[in-house]
Amino acid sequence: MAGLFTMARFAVMLVCIAGAVARAEPETIALFPLDAEARLEAYGQPVAGEIARALTEGKLDVVVVDAKMAMPEHTKLIVAGSIASKGTAVVLQIQIRNPVDGTTTDRLEEAAANLPAIGKAAAKLSERLLPVVRARLEVLRPQARPKDPIRNPQVVTKQPEPVVLVGIGVPDGASLYVEPLRLALIDAVGTSMRANRRQPSPVDASTLGERLAGGTVASARAERGVVFEILDYTIEPAFVPLAKARVRVRIANPGEVVFDRILVTDTIVGDRQMPGDALAARVAREVFTILRPHMKKLEPSWR
Question: Does the structural domain 3-139 have CATH classification 3.40.50.10070?
Answer without folding.
Answer: yes
